[in-house]
Structure formats: C-alpha cells, structure tokens
Design goal:
single chain; 431 residues; alpha/beta; FAD/NAD(P)-binding domain; 21 strands; 33% helix; globular; disordered N terminus; binds flavin-adenine dinucleotide
Length: 431
C-alpha cells in the first residue's frame, strides 16, 4: 500500500451537513450515505410534515414533465393573473412589484420554442428514469409499496384540445417520451368514473406516482438515521466560511462543524444562496390540495386535466386533488377558497363521488413550490465557497426530480464528476 492509499484509507469520511429534510434533502442524504460520507440533516420541523412542499404534492413521478411552466404567448394572460385572484394562476396585487423581476424572467424563459427545447433537454436529463430511482430508494427504506409504476394519464375534453398543446408534446417526443392516445371509448373503459365530457386521453407508461409523499420523505429520513445520519432539530441560519473554505453551518444558538453543506430548504433557499455568493431568482409558487377521504369513486390512474389545470391522485389518505399557482409572499395567509375550488373540480370530474361529504372527510393544505423562472432547479457548487452545494428550485417537479438530484449532490460532495451536464442548472445563470 502506498502512503497516499494508506492516508486515504485512514482518513475520516467528509462530513456533509444537509440543510432541510424535504424530499430533496432526504434523497441527498440517501445518496451521500451510499457514497460513504458522514451526514447530518438540519431540520426544525418534523421531516415530511405539512410545512414542506414535499408533504402535499400530487405525487406525480412524471419523468415526461420536461416543459417549463410558461409557454410562448402566455404574456397575454398577465392581466388576468392580476384581475382574477381565484384563477389557476394568480399574482397577489400587493406582491406584484416584488415578484416583477421574477415574472419578467419567467415570461422571457419561455418566449420562443428553441428556449423551451433547451429547458426540456436539460430537465429530461434530470428526470429520465426517475420512477425506477424512486422505487429503489423506497424499497431500501422499507416503503416500496408507496411507489407505483402504473403510468399517468392526461385527460382532455377532445382530441382538438390535445392538439392545442401539440407543440409541447412534440418537444416531449424529441426527448424520447412516448405515449398512447386513447379515444373516448378507450378512455371510458380505463376510467369508468370520469365525467364523459372528457373524450380524449394520453397515457404515459414510463411514469409513476407516490401514494404518500410526506410518509415517503419521512421514511427516507428514518432510513438515513438507521444508516448513521444524525437528524438535528434546529433551524440553520448561515455558514462560517474562512478563506473560501466552509468551517461550519450556523444554527440558532450554535454551529455544526462540517466539510460540505447542501442548501435544500426549498422555497427558503434564496437567503442561503446569497450567503454562499449566488444571487438566484427564486419565488414561491404557492399551491393547494384537498383530500377527500372514505370515497369509492375516482380515477384508476393519477390524472391531469388540461382544462382546469388540476391533478387527481389516489393517495393512502384518500383522493387528492392538487393544483393552483398563487404568486404571493411565502408566509402570507392562504386563500382557502382555492382549496374549495379544487374540491369542486374534483366532484365535477367524477360525478359518482358523493355530494354530501362530511367536513371531517375533507382535508385542505397550502404548500410552497420553490420555483425558478425557467423551471430548472439550481444544482451545482456555490460561487462563494466550493464546499457548498445548491440543491433547490425544483418548482413543479421536485418530487420526481429529487431522486437524481440526490445522486448528483452525493457526486459533488464526494468530489466526483456529476452524471449529467450541470451547466443549465448553474446557480450563476441569473447574474
Ligand atoms: C400543490 C402542489 C403539487 C405538486 N405536485 C407535484 C408532483 O406531482 N410531482 C412533483 O414532482 N412535484 C410536485 N410539486 C412540487 C414539489 O412538491 C416540490 O418541488 C418539492 O417538494 C420541493 O422539495 P424540497 O425538499 O426542495 O422542499 P420542501 O419539501 O419544502 O422541504 C424544505 C425543508 O426545509 C426546511 N427548512 C426551511 N427552512 C429551514 C432552515 N432555516 N433550516 C433548516 N431547515 C429548513 C423545511 O422545514 C422543509 O422541511 C407540487 C407542489 C405543490 C405545492
């Protein structure tokens, strides 16, 4: 054995502190432990509980969700975003001036199809194969039954409505996504409870879903603990960086010494990014869900509705309808009318659902998507300190995108080359 080998054999593994125990922090911990690193997670709340976006999402493991949220020509809708506070996308008036720089970038990022194609190509590199990656993690953590790989369904009022979005599907095809088109009879056969006004469907077989994203996150954290990770119930406040090297992550009332740190606090990441030397563009796209428990009717497959922009998924807790985009201060009061609108959509979509739901059958929630204007997360080393790793900003695809994100975080933390090109995800791209 050479001295160098002996040294590396005897040296202690690097200590990585992961800030935030949502699904991105959880997947990062999973893969850092696989890479032989020492892991501490810092999280002030219960992992996977309702403060996290990872708790209440629609559970889609949609490896084909490669388009940014905006599209060319969407700027024409800006007045309605402000005028209709209950529309599928709205911006709160008093927050508009603060959101404006982000909104301009949001529109610009999807101004032309070539721009959208570049985003789709990058997102596909992050999302491809995600259902299998999640299945592996869930099985290791003892909750394999939470991940289903039955595919996902898009329901349209008609084939003509599907064709309105033909360009987007063409971009998906270029990225290797394939799908099966269903006429009215095939759709009714597949989804007998669905309102028959939906006469066209698109089934994407490569995808999957999660039956309880909050429980999945919590299980990954518990599994990390059984493999030696420490979960510290604390709120991180910043970094101690000396001569460009990270010494510690600061927490309220103290600090945690470490070699590497990962910023994975979702919608709360901007302040940490700034402290790490990068001025990123990150907003909170707030979303809502309603869960109806104890009902028999509903979809066989998790289903997205293009016309009312909602997703309906059978969860372990009941039938979840999720959606809405509300650009507002992260901690502003929720507008629960939005969750009621989601519930009303659900009842209309599946006429066999009972109308006389008891209040205790319905649970509502508001969550915060951590969203960049171009729909790509920030993933890579910080400019101000190469020991800090950005891993946030997954917007609408944080659940599906977390699996490969975790692998990449571990590769960066271990000093290995990342498995995909990270230049489109650079946290410096907003400079
Ligand atoms: C309605 C809705 C539907 C969605 N549907 C889907 C879907 O079907 N598929 C999909 O892929 N994505 C979906 N998403 C998006 C997805 O939920 C998010 O992108 C993802 O959960 C983000 O995960 P995260 O770990 O980055 O953040 P979070 O889950 O928000 O976790 C961040 C964690 O950081 C902690 N934290 C905050 N501040 C600190 C601090 N100072 N110190 C330490 N810890 C801190 C928080 O307590 C929290 O636990 C949906 C989102 C919404 C709102």
């Amino acid at each position: 054995m050479t001295l160098a080998q002996e040294g590396s054999f005897l040296s202690k593994p690097d200590h990585v502190v992961i800030i935030g125990a949502g699904i991105v922090g959880a997947a990062s911990a999973f893969h850092c432990l696989e890479a032989g690193l020492k892991v501490t997670l810092i999280e002030p709340e219960t992992p996977g509980a309702s403060q996290a976006s990872s708790y209440g999402n629609a559970g889609w493991l949609s490896s084909h969700s490669v388009l940014p949220p905006a599209s060319p020509g969407i700027w024409k809708q800006v007045p309605s975003w402000l005028a209709d506070p209950l529309g599928p996308l709205s911006v709160r008036w008093r927050y508009f001036p603060r959101a404006l720089p982000w909104l301009i970038r949001y529109l610009n990022a999807a101004w032309t199809y070539p721009k959208i194609e570049r985003t789709a190509h990058a997102l596909r590199s992050l999302l491809a194969g995600a259902p299998a990656l999640h299945q592996h993690m869930a099985q290791q953590a003892g909750v394999g039954e939470l991940i289903e790989r039955k595919g996902l369904l898009h329901a349209f009022l008609s084939r003509e409505h599907f064709l309105l979005d033909a360009k987007a599907w063409e971009i998906r095809r270029k990225e290797g996504v394939s799908w099966q088109e269903l006429d009215a009879a095939a759709l009714a056969d597949l989804e007998p409870d669905l309102d028959p006004k939906y006469t066209f469907g698109v089934f994407v077989a490569e995808t999957g879903s999660c039956r309880n994203p909050g429980a999945y996150t919590a299980a990954l954290i518990r599994y990390a603990q059984t493999r030696g990770a420490t979960l510290l119930h604390a709120r991180a406040t910043g970094f101690r960086i000396e001569n460009g090297s990270l010494k510690a992550v600061l927490i309220e009332g103290g600090e945690v010494l470490c070699d590497k740190a990962v910023i994975a606090v979702g919608a709360r990441s901007k302040a940490f990014a700034t402290m790490a030397g990068d001025n990123v563009s990150l907003e909170t796209e707030r979303g809502y869900h309603a869960v109806v428990a104890g009902v028999e009717a509903g979809p066989r497959l998790p289903t997205m509705f293009a016309d009312c922009k909602v997703i309906v998924t059978q969860m372990n807790q009941g039938l979840r309808v999720a959606g809405q985009v509300e650009i507002a201060e992260a901690d502003d009061t929720p507008n629960w009318r939005r969750a009621e609108i989601l519930r009303d959509h659900l009842l209309a979509l599946y006429p066999a659902l009972p109308r006389n739901l008891a209040p205790e059958q319905i649970q509502i929630w508001m969550g915060r998507r951590p969203s960049t204007p171009d729909g790509l997360p920030c993933l890579g080393l910080a400019s101000g300190c190469k020991d800090i790793i950005h891993a946030y900003g997954h917007g609408h695809v944080g659940l599906v995108g977390s699996a490969r994100t975790g692998r990449i975080v571990a590769q960066l933390a271990a000093g290995h080359p990342p498995e995909i090109d990270l230049s489109p995800f650079s946290p410096t791209r907003f400079n």
